Amino acid sequence: MDRELNILFLKTYNRQLNGQHLLPIGEVGRGFFLFFIFFACFIQAVSSQPIGIAKTIDMNFGNIAVISAGTVILAPGGSRIGTGGVTLPALAGTVISASFDVTGGANLTYAITLPLNCIISSGANNMTIDNFTSLPSATGVLNGAGTQQLKVGATLNISGAQTPGSYITSFPFDITVNYN
After folding, report:
1. Could you tell me the pTM of the whole model?
2. Of 12, 138, 153, 180, which is most buried with the most CB atoms under 10 A?
3. pLDDT tens digits, residue range 55-74?
4. Which of 117, 96, 111, 97 is nearest to 148 (CA)?
């Protein structure tokens, strides 16, 4: 007997950090010293533009049919697959990866830090979400206007005896971006 679950992953949020650039100073010669002064001034001007991240779309795994334990893997691009005893019904519901807008200095790169896991609940029933992935992966590059869209997917772990319901987060997960 199939049981349908409507999985909602709401309340994602973000944190913002300012990047720090540290450069070593050595006794290499006057030419290097002048280059270093120029470079240090350039870095100071660029890093004065804080990097920011704002959630635009919440993650949603959609409708899921459970026969036995398995997972639903939601890719950052929004596609999903079921594994184990989990099937994806024709009536998918809302299926979408989380989306964030990253802003900062034009043409700068930044590192992306994703959470290890997150718990979603429906009453006293829980499921774990882990294996977060992003697009771009690990490192992003802001465009000439200083913006980039960041999409995030993850793996939903479902037990064979999972109780049907609408599952949401009690505590949003953190996505951190920081200048390289």
Report:
1. 0.75
2. 153
3. 999 999 999 999 999 999 99
4. 111
